[in-house]
Design brief:
The complex is a heterodimer of chains A (about 800) and B (about 550).
Chain A: E1 2-4, E2 14-15, E3 21-26, E4 29-34, E5 40-45, E6 51-56, E7 65-70, E8 74-79, E9 84-90, E10 95-99, H1 107-113, E11 118-124, E12 129-135, E13 146-150, E14 157-158, E15 164-169, E16 172-177, E17 189-194, E18 199-204, E19 210-215, E20 219-224, H2 228-231, H3 237-246, E21 260-265, E22 271-276, E23 282-287, E24 292-296, E25 302-305, E26 312-317, E27 323-328, E28 332-337, E29 342-348, E30 368-370, E31 375-379, E32 384-389, E33 394-400, E34 414-421, E35 427-434, E36 443-451, E37 458-465, E38 467-470, E39 473-478, E40 484-489, E41 494-499, H4 501-505, H5 509-512, E42 516-522, E43 529-534, E44 541-545, E45 548-553, E46 558-563, E47 570-575, E48 581-586, E49 592-597, E50 602-607, E51 610-616, E52 622-628, H6 634-637, E53 641-647, E54 650-659, E55 666-670, E56 678-680, E57 683-684, E58 688-692, E59 698-701, E60 711-713, H7 728-732, H8 740-750, H9 756-760, H10 771-790
Antiparallel strand pairs in A: 1-59, 2-3, 3-4, 4-5, 6-7, 7-8, 8-9, 10-11, 11-12, 12-13, 14-15, 15-16, 16-17, 18-19, 19-20, 20-21, 22-23, 23-24, 24-25, 26-27, 27-28, 28-29, 30-31, 31-32, 32-33, 34-35, 35-36, 36-37, 39-40, 40-41, 41-42, 43-44, 44-45, 45-46, 47-48, 48-49, 49-50, 51-52, 52-53, 53-54, ...
Chain B: H1 30-36, E1 39-43, E2 51-54, E3 62-66, E4 69-73, E5 85-87, E6 94-99, E7 105-110, E8 114-119, H2 123-126, E9 132-135, E10 141-145, E11 153-158, E12 162-167, E13 176-179, E14 185-190, E15 197-202, E16 206-211, E17 221-224, E18 229-234, E19 240-245, E20 248-253, E21 259-264, E22 271-279, E23 289-296, E24 300-305, E25 310-316, E26 321-326, E27 332-337, E28 342-346, H3 351-361, H4 411-417, H5 421-430, H6 434-446, H7 450-456, H8 459-472, H9 476-492, H10 494-499, H11 501-540
Antiparallel strand pairs in B: 1-28, 2-3, 3-4, 4-5, 6-7, 7-8, 8-9, 10-11, 11-12, 12-13, 14-15, 15-16, 16-17, 18-19, 19-20, 20-21, 22-23, 23-24, 24-25, 26-27, 27-28
Classes of the chains: A mainly beta (about 800), B alpha+beta (about 550).
Subcellular location (chain B): Nucleus, Nucleolus
Organism (chain B): Arachis hypogaea (Peanut)
InterPro entries (chain B): U3_snoRNA-assocProt_15_C, WD40/YVTN_repeat-like_dom_sf, WD40_PAC1, WD40_repeat_CS, WD40_repeat_dom_sf, WD40_rpt
């Protein structure tokens, strides 16, 4: 079983101490990426629920230890260079967030504290989220003391100096100052800062007592000198209070404990990330509109990195001052070269499903699979198609379908509604729609793409505007062997498109002229056509016309037969591999999966199931369905969906697997030469089934395998890593290495004299190289001498 | 993947008009490009033009016969409306013209049977009266010709079925009278290689090759075209002739005794005239390719490549065509029509072609420009010292750091980039390209700003929009958006339109064009109603 497609941006990532590794929480594991190549190196596996935070213990470059917390209620301590778990603490309560202040701060304090390491955790005790303290060095139990209860999940934010940590709670900020000497009973002092809007994010200044917070309206508030009264327990504090009472406290609300509060406003939507630069001179902020703003803290001057294209979530500085990373909501982690503000590398996860599902009736968020090369093509929010390698678990490339820039705050007016790949993966069809404004200017366009054989990238070959007039396209299907496609529309007709093959073979000018053109148009009683498919040999085209299936000869465009009737409109059709059976899926009040025999033109058998996806194996009569279970069954099946594997001749399923998040999921059989990629217990598997769920996490498994053998991937790309230069060497290049031994050897050689054997054999015996080596040197020196004499 | 996936970052997408479907077949072969590179101008207000001929000598003026007048035009003049010389001393309609090989004399025959010779080399005054009046034909003369290699003789023929050869210097009576045709003789041509042979074509379907040296009224070769012969022309090599008659043009090999080589049946009505055209720069004979240009009453001019036996270009004119001529320098092509318009096609000779000729001619005189052998050494006293090296060209091994190319954005793109939607719409409406307007409108729709823009247009700009709508809202490619938009505009701006007379006029025009379109659609539907049962029946079989 191969899992992949995890969310990389569920919680903030972390850099290793040397800046070469990025630790990313990916579901139940922590994946470690190389920051120079952006490829995954290893992963920390062990947690049984999603990992919520990862904290790298600051130390010298060599030590690679980290703490992780998870919803499974454990805190674990890892050596991630190996990688292996060192220690495991069971808190017994789901942990959402954990900060460990003890490791931060200046070094002399550190020494004193390392004896006893405390962590502050946000845990759930069954009723509410509580912030508690626990000792990590000699752990017995979670501290009884509850610092604060919140209703929602709120991440703990710690100041880089390790003196404060804080939390946002609706319109308030709570900030605690850590006690000077940590113990189980020491209580942190707390202040609260108020604001009129809901606060979304906060950040602490690295050195000063300054905290910045962003709110939902896009404002950034900066409180300077917070906690002057409460945290600084000087004797003269009373005087200061009286002074402060007299003067106006520069925008600080109510009786909040801060010296001044200023507000900056640039973001038009809510602020999602705030981060101070390590020297405290700059503040990074980012929001829903996908623009990273760099504020100069003193003057308020701004610099921008625009058009990142997705809401920004986290900004992490690496120990190397020239490198930092941004996590984006579209599951991408971008490496940023800091001074020039440019993106140099991306860790690309599978893009999340589109947020606007209900844009129109033709919209389908379904992914398309390239079965031979193991790629999945998914629609992205920025009007493109992302190709994601299922076996390598990384994004391969993206194709921009609509030539538009995507702004996350914009209203959705353009969408890629459909993507389909041909069986051999060489042709892609996409449908995009433009929504009309008050009934004016809507447009549907169909695009055909060809795979460039050299670069393995798709490029557009033909654009067809309004292929079915103003009706939306419901499905595209490709001929299994020829360059032929069919598109069906809700307007009640389908069109067969062909690409002239003769043109392709010729070089030069003719290639320019190749393109897809309409070969035939068909309709059946003007009924809306919602699905179309070709049979495995391509001789029959099946098109679903409302509740019946029409069978056509694709070449002559002749209606051959009309099959049966289902109670509700058919939304999906598939031939069961090479067999004579055709599957139809209908949704609605009476959902149904029907299997039709093509030889008898009657229904063979049917199930009353809500089917989400159907896939048939190409070379056998097996097919798999993904069925949504009704709500009452969820408990029994441990999930809301079930995958059933059938042989088309037999209504009894061959195998079944229960899955979660089945809504919006997809299924596909992968085939082809997988020997290099996937191995099951030493023997290669011929057929694999991939299931991708509604959140676009996927799992690849062998459906015929009863015992659930482990499917492991042999990764080839781990060795590809190159060592990047950073710090001094990135600016000035590598220093020449001193090799003391080499120097010595050179000096020995240089003293070759009239009698080389004397110098070669001088020295104490334990310094001498082995005799076999000396012998050749000795002989060489003799030869040289002769040559010199001859001259 | 290792390389940055984030390619969308600094990209701007300028709005682009929708793509047009590419024609499946390439209609622009280099040859048809050549023939359509002749830019047409018209000479109007004449009466039907039965004959056109170019002077063989530079600058190749051409003479046109129309009614009882002959006009001589210089194609270099611009505009072409007024002739350089007009000859009016005819009593009847002029039927045929021919220049002498040096271009100084022009022979013309008219329907009264008179053949006249004019001096056209000496300006318009000299040409007023004829040098010679050759009267012998009793019926209308249809064909007059100066042989290409003969300066002294003129050939003429006419409705009396006689072919006469005149000695112009001797005057009044013909040297020779050739009887052989049994019907009107309409056309003829002289051999380009032999001064003594010529051909004539007649309505008795035959084309006859005559040899003046024999002179016994017996043609050397005779071929039967099968239709009344309207025109006949020698091909440049002199071994072949092309004859036009009926709807076909036929090619005959004279050397093998009059064998039919091929026949071109491209025209739908009678082919009236032929001439030999040439593709090529003119100076290099080997590159020249000869074509036969034929025009017919169906209004088509066709270019026939007789070596590959293909029609390589075809062009339609809105009138029956009577005559065609092609200038020897390949710059001009003239076509005369029956309704009195001469279509003059002029081609611009490319720079390099002209240059090539010039350089050849002046090669002898060319002097190489002086070269600065010493490099000037700048001193710090000179201000250019401080700019030295800025214009330095990179040498081969240099690593170049290019300045990133700035994408050129058009006015409306710039405005759209700055979210000045209204101004963008106006700026593109002021432009000429309707495709761009549509692209901007679509972009505004996807920004949900079109309606706001329309409602904010002031009266002047609204007029602009209405003019645009009237022009293009019935064009099928644009109507999907524009029809809806027109309705919205009327709904939203009804008050302003009521208030202004100018706007109301535009609305009336808009209404008219839409009514027209509706009518067209109705008639199309009627046709569809007629056709679809037929198709059904055809489909059943």
């Amino acid at each position: 079983m191969i899992r992949g497609g995890q969310n990389y941006v569920s919680s903030p990532p972390a850099f290793s101490n040397d800046g070469n590794r990025v630790l990313v929480c990916t579901g139940n594991t922590v994946s470690i990426f190389s920051s120079s190549t952006g490829l995954q190196v290893s992963s920390l596996e062990g947690h049984t629920a999603p990992v919520t935070s990862v904290f790298v213990v600051p130390a010298t470059d060599i030590l690679c230890y980290c703490w992780t917390s998870s919803f499974d209620g454990t805190v674990r301590y890892w050596d991630f260079s190996v990688p292996e778990m060192v220690k495991k603490l069971d808190l017994g309560m789901p942990i959402f967030s954990m900060v460990i202040p003890s490791f931060l701060g200046s070094s002399e304090e550190n020494n004193a504290k390392t004896a006893n390491v405390f962590a502050y955790v946000s845990v759930h005790d069954g009723k509410a989220w509580q912030i508690r303290k626990c000792s990590l060095t000699n752990y017995q139990n979670v501290g009884k003391l509850v610092l604060k209860e919140t209703e929602r999940l709120e991440p703990l934010i710690i100041s880089p100096s390790g003196k404060f940590f804080g939390i946002k709670d609706k319109r308030k900020l709570h900030i605690w100052k850590l006690p000077r000497v940590e113990s189980d009973l020491a209580v942190a002092k707390k202040i609260t800062l108020h604001h009129t809007k809901t606060i979304t994010v906060l950040a602490f200044h690295p050195t000063e007592r300054t905290v910045a917070a962003g709110d939902v309206t896009g404002r950034i508030l900066i409180w300077r000198g917070f906690g002057t009264q409460k945290f600084l327990d000087h004797s003269g504090s009373n005087n200061r209070i009286s002074m402060n009472d007299g003067e106006d406290k520069n925008g600080v609300r109510q009786n909040d404990d801060a010296e001044s509060c200023s507000a900056w406003h640039w973001h038009s939507a809510g602020v999602c990330l705030l981060s101070f630069s390590p020297d405290g001179a700059y503040l990074y902020s980012g929001g829903k509109e996908g623009v990273l703003v760099l504020w100069q803290l003193d003057s308020g001057k701004k610099k921008f990195l625009p058009r990142i294209g997705s809401p920004l979530l986290y900004f992490i500085e690496s120990p190397d001052p020239s490198l930092s990373l941004i996590s984006c909501a579209d599951n991408q982690i971008h490496m940023l070269k800091t001074p020039s503000m440019e993106i140099i590398k991306s860790i690309s996860g599978i893009k999340p499903p589109l947020s606007y599902q209900e844009i129109c009736e033709s919209f389908s968020g379904k992914a398309a699979f390239d079965c031979t090369s193991g790629l999945v093509a998914v629609q992205t929010e920025n009007y493109g198609i992302q190709f994601y390698s299922l076996f390598a678990n990384r994004g391969v490339y993206e194709v921009q379908v609509c030539e538009r820039n995507h702004q996350p705050v914009d209203e959705v007016t353009v969408a890629v509604t459909l993507v389909e790949l041909s069986v051999d993966g060489s042709i892609m069809g996409t449908v995009e729609i433009k929504l009309p404004e008050e009934g004016v200017g809507g447009l549907v366009s169909l695009k055909f793409w060809d795979l460039d054989s050299d670069t393995k990238r798709f490029s557009v070959s033909t654009v067809i505007y309004e292929p079915h007039r103003d009706a939306h396209i419901s499905a595209i299907a490709f001929h299994p062997t020829r360059r032929m496609a069919v598109s069906s529309s809700y307007g009640g007709d389908f069109k067969i498109w062909v690409c002239k093959e003769g043109d392709i073979q010729q070089k030069g000018q003719a290639l320019q002229n190749s393109g897809w053109m309409c070969h035939a148009v068909g309709s059946y009683k003007n009924k809306a056509m919602r699905a179309a498919t070709f049979s495995a040999d391509g001789s029959v085209l099946a098109v679903a016309a409302d509740t019946v299936i029409t069978l056509w000869d694709p070449d002559k465009n002749v209606l051959m037969a009309v099959v049966g009737e289902t109670p509700t409109p058919i939304v999906s059709l598939a031939f069961a591999g090479k067999s004579e059976y055709l599957l139809s899926v209908s949704h609605g009040l009476k959902p149904q999966l029907s299997v039709w025999s093509m030889s008898k033109l009657t229904m063979a058998w049917s199930y009353r199931l809500q089917i989400e996806a159907v896939s048939s194996a190409i070379d056998s009569s097996y097919f798999a369905i993904l069925a949504l279970l009704p709500g009452s069954n969820e408990r029994a099946f441990k999930g809301n969906g079930i995958i059933l594997l059938f042989n088309a001749t037999d209504p009894i399923p061959v195998a079944s697997m229960s899955v979660t998040k089945a809504k919006g999921g997809g299924l596909a059989f992968l085939k082809g030469d997988l020997s290099e990629r996937a191995v099951i217990d030493g023997k290669t598997s011929q057929t694999l089934l991939v299931y991708i769920n509604g959140d676009r996490e996927y799992v690849i498994f062998d459906p015929y395998d009863k015992e659930g053998h482990k499917l492991s991937i042999i990764r080839q790309d781990v060795a590809l890593e190159e060592t990047g230069q950073f710090g001094y060497s990135s600016i000035y290049g590598e220093l020449p290495k001193f090799d003391l031994q080499k120097d010595k050897a050179a000096s020995v050689m240089s003293t070759a004299s009239e009698r080389p054997w004397e110098t070669i054999f001088t020295g104490s015996t334990h310094m001498l190289p082995p005799l076999t080596k000396l012998c050749s040197v000795f002989l060489e020196s003799l030869l040289e001498k002769r040559a010199a004499l001859a001259e | 993947m290792a390389e940055p996936l984030h390619s969308s970052q600094p990209k701007t997408f300028p709005v682009k008009p929708k793509l047009k479907p590419k024609p499946r077949t390439q209609n622009q072969t280099p040859e048809s490009k050549y023939w359509s590179s002749f830019k047409n101008t018209q000479i109007q207000n004449l009466i039907s033009v039965p004959s056109l001929t170019f002077s063989p000598s530079s600058p190749h003026p051409f003479a046109a016969a129309h009614s009882a007048t002959v006009s001589i035009y210089k194609p270099q003049n611009d505009p072409l409306d007024s002739p350089t010389t007009t000859i009016t001393s005819f009593k009847d309609v002029v039927s045929s013209l021919s220049f002498r090989s040096d271009g100084r004399l022009l022979a013309a025959g008219d329907l009264s049977g008179l053949v006249q010779v004019f001096d056209v080399g000496g300006g318009s005054a000299a040409a007023r009266s004829a040098l010679r009046r050759l009267r012998s034909h009793v019926r209308p003369v249809r064909f007059v010709h100066y042989p290409k290699l003969q300066r002294l003789r003129v050939i003429s023929a006419g409705d009396d079925a006689l072919v006469k050869v005149w000695d112009v210097a001797a005057g009044d009576s013909p040297v020779m009278e050739l009887r052989g045709h049994r019907d009107y003789v309409r056309c003829g041509d002289s051999s380009p290689v032999n001064a003594d042979t010529f051909i004539t074509g007649s309505y008795d379907h035959t084309v006859k090759l005559w040899d003046v040296r024999v002179g016994d009224s017996k043609p050397a070769i005779e071929v039967n075209h099968g239709n009344p012969v309207e025109d006949v022309v020698f091909l440049p090599a002199g071994g072949m002739v092309a004859t036009a008659g009926g709807n076909s043009v036929k090619f005959w090999d004279l050397i093998s005794g009059g064998k039919l080589v091929c026949s071109m049946e491209g025209h739908n009505k009678t082919v009236t005239s032929l001439c030999v055209g040439r593709i090529g720069s003119g100076s290099d004979e080997e590159l020249n390719q000869f074509r036969v240009l034929s025009v017919g009453l169906d209004g088509y001019m066709k270019v026939f490549d007789y070596s590959s036996m293909k029609v390589t270009h075809s062009m339609r004119f809105p009138a029956p065509l009577l005559s065609v001529a092609y200038s020897p320098d390949c710059k001009t092509r003239v076509i005369g029509t029956s309704n009195g318009i001469i279509y003059v096609g002029k081609r611009k000779i490319k720079e390099e072609e002209i240059e090539g000729r010039v350089s050849e001619k002046s090669l002898f005189w060319r002097i190489r420009p002086l070269e600065h052998t010493e490099k000037k050494v700048f001193r710090p006293s000179h201000f250019r010292y401080f700019q030295r090296g800025q214009g330095e060209k990179p040498s081969e091994g240099d690593y170049l750091i290019m300045r990133p190319k700035k994408e050129k954005l058009r006015e409306h793109d710039k405005l759209l980039k700055n979210f000045r939607h209204g101004e963008a719409l106006v700026s593109v409406l002021e432009g000429k390209n309707p495709g761009n307007v549509l692209a901007v409108m679509e972009e505004l729709v996807s920004r949900k700003k079109l309606m706001v823009c329309v409602s904010n247009l002031d009266a002047e700009k609204l007029k602009l929009l209405l003019v645009f709508l009237r022009k293009y809202c019935t064009v099928p490619r644009y109507s999907g958006l524009l029809m809806g938009l027109a309705r919205k505009v009327l709904e939203m701006r009804v008050d302003e339109i009521r208030g202004s007379e100018a706007l109301r006029a535009h609305i009336r025009n808009l209404k008219r064009s839409i009514e027209e379109e509706i009518k067209i659609q109705q008639s199309l539907q009627e046709i569809q109603g007629i056709i679809s049962p037929l198709l059904k029946i055809a489909g059943r079989r």
